[in-house]
Design goal:
With 787 residues, the chain is of the alpha+beta class. Helices cover 35% and strands 16% of the residues.
């Protein structure tokens, strides 16, 4: 009886198992018929640098042309006629052929003639025609999608060369066009190979299975994931034809890493490893990419070139064995080197800039930032130089002054470089370490500017007033004696940095040597309202307190605002707004374009006076450390140090560049160093590594200026036995009164009366002269000046 019950139980169990199997099979059969859609392959947001401009006069060494060419994929060749993406150097210069014209319609071939100093003397196209300028392709700064850093450049299957498709199929799925998503023979063969090798040496997944895993699943190694992968593969095969599946696979396969950025798809990989499109890949290149699929890190040609070459050669032999390539083609490809870039593309580290860019883009196009191509004004090479300058500057300071090292809150620095002609941000470093702090000290930190605010005060005095005359000139004499001012906050007693007083000085010297007391007196005479109006006209938007100490930079501003204000000095008096991008391209076309807006705020001659004094600061004043650090180009500069040494600044500017550096603690504690000690070396390093030691363009003297020799102690025109130095003035505003030696006229001494509230305003008409000596000197001047 028990035996009968056992048999009955077994029969029922088998019957139940059969029913379950039948139902499961029916459900599986029906479920795999359900259509499944691959998610749309969206383009990531791509951020590009500005195209690098080549023009006669450029120093190719200073611009690091060879590094730029390598990063955008050019390879040096011995062939006199380079192919696409190649360049050839000779004694005259170099010839290169661009993979694609930049801008569209430009010549592909470019001849660059150099002189013996490495400067461009001529540019020619493929017809020999001289060009005024040429551009290289922009560099990719970043590529991201949905919070992930990735580089993907989808292409159609028709755009991928057949030998690359053959290489992928021979390595990953030879029976791809025969199976229906699963290849049991391949799976069984891989199982046996792995057993024999006592490890995982082969994979049994088909291309469809790999696609399902890449698109829908994680990469965990579990039985449940493998079963789901097989189920999804069957559904994909029912929903798409083979070419569609293959195209999707070739655009989603993972092929390496560039820093935090994943390289996805064959087109992105071709650009990453070879610097060219898949269209230009030869059979050896294709074999290498196909071989990378099995292990992008294992066969990375940059880190494991020998291993990568063995893998490439193995794929080439497999192509020959299957008949996909003729033996002679295989042998020729085997004899060639890998052909990859010499080094991996260097990543441009610009996290603070990208954070600002994201905020600016969101303000223009909204939060839905998908499939955008953003052209910025960032110079990829200058950004790298800026990052290195900040890091090296802080490291050197902490080595030279160990007491400033703080574990709880390290010393910080920030740097911004902008193009004064259009406001484009060329480089931006908001702190020493983005991972430790995402607070951007360029755009978000308001700090006291100290003496870098003094040029604002100077411009307020040097610009023409309502009556057409300036209140001051660079020759105006200022008192440099102890000053005591009663204010609502208490007594204010400014002092010079060294604690000394010279008695009198002039405005030029006060700016060059950054003397506090004379500038404070100038500010008191001008009035806070005039200074505030000048600052606002220059682009400073932070609220400025109209107090006596405003002239010495007591109100807080951002380094970005300082850069915009100094850009006005560099560009001839036009207010500009710094901008992080130039245009945004969406899938359907342009979404936004930011054209530079230039608002004339001051006359070119007026700002040229300030620039003249700040050029003198570099030659003779507080900015002369630039020369000591090897920068010889034409430059204007200003140091800044705040009370108790809490903030150290330096601003350097040339016609094509404004650079601002700030150093300090986030909590505002004193660190005991001046702008010349802490911030100037950072700017000096940046200038030498971007414009070169010889510098770039030189300042040009605008019209409506005159140069007159001035006797500095009196601020009067120099004369016989009363020598002086040439000084710049707005046309018609130079003093007509001439100084005289004291032994000729006891009433006219070397010193001006100190009881005057401020220097006399320059007059247009010559004053009456009463002595025969004055009349003789006037006659000599008239003859010399042709009157």
């Amino acid at each position: 009886m028990a035996q009968t019950d056992l048999r009955t139980g077994i029969r029922r169990a088998l019957l139940g198992l059969g029913v379950v199997t039948l139902v499961a099979s029916a459900v599986l059969f029906v479920s795999v018929q359900w259509p499944i859609a691959l998610p749309p392959l969206e383009l990531p947001v791509v951020v590009e640098s500005r195209p690098h401009r080549l023009a006669p006069g450029n120093d190719v060494e200073a611009q690091r042309l060879w590094d730029r060419l390598a990063r955008i994929g050019y390879r040096e060749t011995e062939e006199a006629r380079p192919g696409p993406g190649e360049f050839h150097r000779n004694r005259r210069g170099l010839r290169l052929q661009r993979p694609q014209p930049t801008p569209p319609g430009a010549s592909l071939e470019l001849q660059i003639d150099l002189d013996t100093r490495g400067r461009i003397v001529a540019l020619r196209d493929d017809t020999g025609r001289r060009l005024r300028e040429a551009h290289l392709a922009p560099e990719k700064i970043e590529s991201f999608q949905g919070g992930r850093h990735l580089d993907r450049r989808p292409v159609s299957l028709q755009a991928i060369p057949p030998h690359l498709v053959d290489a992928v199929l021979v390595v990953e799925d030879r029976r791809f066009f025969e199976h229906r998503g699963l290849d049991l023979w391949r799976t069984f063969g891989a199982f046996l190979a792995n057993v024999r090798a006592r490890g995982v040496t082969q994979g049994g997944s088909t291309i469809t299975q790999q696609l399902a895993k890449n698109v829908f699943l994680t990469h965990e190694r579990t039985l449940a994931r493998k079963l789901r992968e097989a189920w999804l593969s069957l559904r994909l095969e029912r929903s798409y034809d083979k070419p569609e599946l293959l195209e999707a696979y070739l655009n989603t396969i993972y092929l390496g890493q560039r820093g935090p950025t994943s390289i996805l798809g064959m087109e992105a990989a071709a650009q990453h490893y070879f610097g060219k499109s898949t269209r230009a890949l030869d059979v050896g290149d294709a074999a290498l990419l196909a071989g990378l699929i099995h292990g992008p890190g294992l066969y990375n040609p940059f880190t494991h070139p020998e291993r990568a070459q063995k893998r490439r050669d193995r794929v080439l032999k497999m192509l020959g064995e299957t008949g996909a390539l003729e033996e002679v083609v295989v042998e020729r490809a085997l004899s060639k080197p890998l052909g990859t870039r010499d080094t991996p593309p260097e990543r441009t580290d610009a996290p603070y800039f990208l954070a600002k860019l994201e905020r600016d883009i969101e303000a223009v196009v909204g939060a839905n930032q998908k499939a955008l191509r953003i052209r910025t004004g960032l110079d990829a090479e200058w950004q790298r130089v800026a990052q290195r300058a900040v890091e090296a500057g802080l490291t050197q300071l902490e080595a030279d002054f160990p007491k400033i090292v703080r574990e709880d809150a390290p010393l910080q620095a920030a740097l911004i470089a902008i193009d004064p002609s259009n406001g484009a941000i060329r480089a931006l470093v908001g702190g020493r370490d983005w991972k430790a702090s995402q607070f951007d000290r360029v755009t978000q930190a308001r700090r006291q500017p100290g003496s870098v605010f003094k040029p604002v005060v100077a411009l307020a005095g040097l610009a023409r007033a309502a009556d057409g005359l300036p209140l001051y000139t660079l020759a105006s004499v200022l008192e440099d004696e102890p000053l005591r001012v009663e204010t609502p906050e208490g007594v204010w007693e400014p002092a010079n940095y060294d604690g000394e007083f010279s008695g009198t000085t002039n405005l030029r010297t006060a700016l060059e040597k950054s003397l506090n007391v004379p500038i404070a007196r100038l500010g008191l005479d001008l009035g806070a309202e005039r200074i505030v109006a000048t600052a606002e006209a220059m682009g400073i938007e932070s609220p400025l307190r109209p107090v006596a100490s405003l002239a010495l930079g007591s109100s807080e501003v951002t380094p970005l605002e300082i850069a915009e204000a100094y850009a006005l000095l560099a560009n001839g008096g036009y207010r500009i707004e710094a901008r992080s991008f130039e245009q945004v391209q969406g899938p359907e076309g342009p979404l936004a374009r930011i054209d530079p807006e230039r608002v004339e705020a001051f006359a070119p001659a007026e700002v040229a006076l300030v620039t003249s004094a700040l050029r003198g600061a570099v030659e003779r004043g507080t900015g002369r450390g630039l020369r000591a650090r090897g920068y010889r180009g034409d430059i204007a500069g200003k140091t800044g140090t705040t009370n108790d040494h809490r903030d150290a600044w330096f601003v350097g500017y040339a016609p094509e560049l404004v650079v601002v550096a700030w150093v300090g603690y986030d909590d505002g504690k004193s660190f005991g160093l001046t702008g010349a000690q802490a911030a100037l070396p950072i700017v000096a390093r940046f200038l030498v590594d971007t414009l070169g030691a010889r510098g770039g363009a030189s300042f040009r003297r605008p019209p409506h200026l005159e140069r007159v020799a001035i006797h500095a102690p009196t601020g009067l025109r120099a004369g016989f036995l009363c020598s002086g130095e040439p000084e710049l003035f707005l046309a018609g505003t130079a003093p007509r009164e001439r100084c005289a030696p004291s032994f000729f006229d006891r009433d006219r001494t070397w010193d001006r009366p100190r009881e005057q509230p401020r220097p006399e305003r320059p007059r247009r008409r010559r004053t009456e002269r009463n002595t025969w000596f004055d009349r003789v000197l006037d006659a000599v001047d008239d003859i010399a000046e042709g009157r």
